[in-house]
Design a protein that fits this description.
The protein folds into three domains: 3-66 and 296-344, Immunoglobulins (Immunoglobulin-like, Sandwich); 73-286, Jelly Rolls (Sandwich), CATH 2.60.120.200; 347-402, no CATH class. Helices cover 4% and strands 41% of the residues. The chain has helices spanning 348-354, 377-385, and strands at 3-7, 11-12, 17-24, 28-38, 49-52, 59-62, 73-77, 85-93, 101-108, 111-118, 124-128, 131-134, 144-152, 157-164, 177-180, 191-194, 196-202, 205-211, 214-222, 228-233, 242-246, 252-255, 259-262, 283-286, 300-303, 311-319, 322-330.
């Protein structure tokens, strides 16, 4: 799609403010506030009807193309220790390749300084400043492994160890090893990234690259004496974007809403309880196609006038032959006395459930014979090209959309 966008909220009341975020391939577009009166284009009905409403939004505006930065990851402001240390985490890989995937990595600008990766072939890798150490075998998919990378600046070595969460024959158990540092390990820029190899800066914000598909649990940084220097509890604040730092770890945040409260290495395989427990549901499942708020810059800010009547509205966008409506709902002012005798409930949860749906609905004519149920090629192409998902899809690694 050459012209699209979204608002930061769906419903507002007079006196409140909302924002619109627009993607336009064309260098400019026309905006117009409209009240939506009738949207059914059934030829036996009145057809599409809208009424233009005068507002400060109306008129030409500069446009710019925007990107969708897919992939979930965690970000913590945690500096790399200056002396000897180890990084330690439980990992559960679901989909290696096509490139390597970051698991626990210190960033350095658009690149990575040092960290633990999953190679494109499924082997664990410790990589930084020209030093590369790989596990002897690929990890089995959807199996828990505890991976530890030990950096000994005093001895000039890096070691990798891999411990399976369940018993595996020696013939399939991946071994680690130890190598001499090719060069001193740089400290990076103080950003510790979970589930991404690097963060590429773009005009729209950081774009995660080398995103890990799978679960991570119980990450920590350990000193040479075995004492925990920093750790993160993925069970805490599971309903938020917060990553809880413990034992000296700084609090961080998740980006693009990875799946929280996932079963971790302590999961026994069955339970009679419906309540997640910190010892069994302490993992985060990251996906390279997760998307939350795409974070486009604000194109318009709209303060709802006090006299704007309640109803269904939209910001109409036009560029030549392209047209798009960004709908929203204006609620009446909160009633101080008797409320109105009639209330209209908009099914916004259904809108969310079907958002980004890209299934072929041409066979749905039997359900709605008087309405064109097909998706326009432009919309379908935009959803497909950007890898957008609905609740009726699966992630690339086969897990469900939540």
């Amino acid at each position: 799609m050459k012209l699209t966008g979204y608002s930061d909220r769906w419903s507002v009341r007079p006196g409140e403010t909302m924002t619109f975020h627009v993607h336009s391939v064309a260098p400019s577009y026309e905006a117009q506030l409209v009240r939506l009166i009738h949207g059914d284009e059934n030829p036996h009905g009145p057809g599409f009807r809208e009424a233009e409403i005068e507002s400060a939004l109306d008129g030409p505006h500069p446009g710019a193309p925007r990107t969708i930065r897919k992939g979930s990851y965690g970000l913590v402001a945690q500096a790399m220790p200056g002396g000897d240390f180890s990084i330690d985490a439980w990992i559960w890989s679901t989909l290696p390749g096509p490139a390597r995937q970051g698991i626990m990595v210190w960033a350095s600008g658009d690149a990575s300084a040092f960290g633990l990766f999953l190679g494109a072939d499924g082997h664990l890798e410790a990589d930084g400043e020209g030093t590369m150490l790989r596990s002897s075998r690929a990890l089995a998919p959807k199996q828990w492994y505890r991976a530890t990378v030990t950096v000994s600046r005093s001895a000039g070595t890096v070691a990798l160890s891999v411990e399976p969460g369940i018993w595996l024959p020696e013939s399939v158990n991946p071994d680690g090893g130890e190598v001499t540092l090719a060069a001193p390990i740089a400290a990076g820029d103080g950003r510790l990234v979970f589930a991404a190899g690097r963060l590429e800066e773009t005009p729209d914000g950081p774009h995660p690259r080398e995103v890990f598909n799978g679960k991570i649990a119980r990450p920590r940084i350990v000193g040479p004496d075995g004492a925990t220097l920093a750790a993160w509890d993925f069970f805490q604040h599971a309903g938020e974007a917060t990553i809880a730092g413990v034992c000296g770890g700084a609090d961080g945040r998740t980006v693009n809403r990875p799946s929280r409260l996932m079963t971790g290495p302590g999961w026994p395989g069955a339970t009679n309880s419906t309540t997640p427990l910190p010892e069994t549901h302490d993992a985060i499942h990251f996906h390279d196609d997760d998307v939350a708020d795409v974070g486009w810059p604000v194109s318009h800010e709209f303060a709802v006038p006090a006299d704007l009547r309640s109803g269904v509205y939209a910001l109409r966008l036009r560029t030549g032959e392209d047209e798009e409506h960004l709908p929203f709902f204006v609620c009446p002012p909160k009633a101080e006395g008797d409320a109105a005798p009639l209330a209209v409930l908009m099914p916004t949860m259904s809108y969310l459930a079907y958002a980004n749906e890209s299934l072929d609905v041409s066979d749905s004519v039997q359900v709605s014979p008087r309405q064109d149920m097909t998706i326009t090629p432009e919309r379908y192409a935009y959803v497909a090209e950007n890898g957008l998902k609905s609740l009726y899809d699966n992630h690339r690694d086969g897990s469900g959309i939540a």
